[in-house]
Design brief:
The protein is 28% helix and 28% strand. The chain is of the alpha+beta class. The N and C termini lie far apart (52 Å). Bound molecules: adenosine-5'-diphosphate and magnesium ion (MG).
């Protein structure tokens, strides 16, 4: 099939690998802009299937389904653990962004950290642990540390905190002896993320940094703008843009950073080659949402305005607030508030820790937004 000339315009059909909440919000953005959407997801109840023109309900490596996806004018992904080889194969037939190579970097903490360092960016001190022998004296200086599997970790899973080399060896074995990194525990003063939208060297933009608060390893709140000095905020955006440039990245890229020490130094932690949970506020509080940007960039259009309209706080709604009998939370806690915007993903089954929805509260300043979001979230169960 010949590739479509850029930019790809409505009513072209766009494809996405994955139909969870990120795929769902992408689909709404694309449909609103007049594009068609084909979603590939093995779950018959995939959230994105509510809005897509076509749901290919098949495995991500299903040849027939991938052959259908190839017919789309452009293809993107909602998650990083997609087969990078399948993405490269798709790219022989249609426009794919981000590239399979960029997705592969994000899939593996070892390559990810190496690429960050090669780009001249600071990360935590770390060692690659490919066998138990790699837990040697050189690791002692990094204790206390965290041992993380190189691949497939998310929401704090696949990580064990260690204080001694013996604990580190036990952690490596406990994680199945798969390739790992041993990271020095950083003196965290905060965690932030910046979402970058990049088409090419001339067309790149970054959103304001989000200040992220986790509970049990899962993102609970993102406060925007991050409550940091202006020079640190600016440095965060520059760092994220620089990394996107170094990766020659096309699409929406989330860059997570640690803020460490009294001098609030930034260390790059990890990247996600897609819109990110910490960017959901862009739907209600920014000129263009991260999902509109994903549509634009995959179509070869430059990023739209990333400006923040109002300080805000995004709060995740987890399955924990559903009753044991499946009873819904008290939605009026959010819906009664004029400054709050509720988003529910339409997932059939609520489970502890499962992301079921989020809401974003706008306020006069970041402190007030955070306070309001915490009060509302507390009233949900
Ligand atoms: P993932 O989000 O893929 O589960 P992360 O590397 O972001 O993995 O780690 C999850 C959380 O664990 C971070 O958001 C941070 O709170 C904490 N954490 C991870 N690595 C370190 C570190 N080296 N020092 C201090 N805290 C860390
Ligand atoms: Mg993370």
């Amino acid at each position: 099939m010949t590739q479509q000339a850029l930019p790809i315009l409505p009513p072209a059909m766009l494809g996405i690998l994955g139909g969870g909440q990120l795929g769902s919000m992408f689909t709404v953005a694309a449909k609103t802009m007049g594009y068609g959407v084909t979603v590939l997801d093995p779950d018959p109840h995939a959230p994105a299937a509510r809005f897509a023109d076509r749901h290919l309900c098949a495995a991500f490596d299903d040849d027939k389904a991938l052959a259908e996806l190839e017919k789309c004018a452009a293809v993107t992904t909602e998650f990083e653990n997609v087969n990078a080889a399948a993405m490269r194969e798709l790219a022989r037939h249609t426009r794919v962004s981000p590239s399979g190579d960029c997705v592969a970097v994000a899939q593996n903490r070892i390559t990810e950290k190496a690429r960050m360092r090669a780009a001249g960016l600071q990360t935590v001190e770390y060692r690659e642990i490919l066998s138990a022998d790699d837990v040697d004296e050189s690791c002692a200086a990094l204790l206390p540390a965290i041992v993380k599997t190189a691949t497939l970790g998310y929401d704090g899973k696949g990580q064990i905190r260690v204080k001694t080399l013996d604990e580190a060896r036990a952690a490596f074995a406990g994680l199945g002896g798969v390739p790992c990194v041993l990271e020095q525990m950083a003196d965290l003063r905060g965690e932030i993320s910046v979402i970058v939208c990049r088409l090419d060297a001339q067309h790149a933009a970054a959103y304001d940094a989000a200040e992220n608060h986790h509970e049990n390893g899962i993102l609970a709140y993102s406060v925007v703008p991050a409550r940091l000095p202006e020079n640190v905020q600016q440095q965060a955006r520059q760092t994220a843009l620089h990394l996107a440039e170094a990766l020659d990245y096309v699409g929406v890229l989330a860059v997570e950073m640690f803020v460490v020490g009294d001098d609030k130094r930034l260390l790059v932690n990890e990247i996600a080659p897609r819109p990110h949970n910490s960017g959901h506020h862009t739907i209600d509080a920014c000129a263009a949402s991260q999902f509109q940007q994903q549509v634009r960039l995959m179509c070869g259009l430059p990023p739209a305005d990333t400006r923040l309209h109002s300080p805000c706080c995004m709060a995740n709604i987890l399955g924990d607030v559903w009753g044991a009998d499946g009873a819904q939370p008290c939605w009026t806690a959010v819906l009664d508030e004029a400054a709050a915007h509720l988003h529910l993903y339409g997932k059939k089954q609520a489970r502890a820790g499962r992301k079921m929805g989020h809401f974003t509260v706008l306020a006069d300043d970041a402190d007030a937004a955070f306070e309001a979001a915490r009060a509302m979230r507390g009233k949900l169960p």
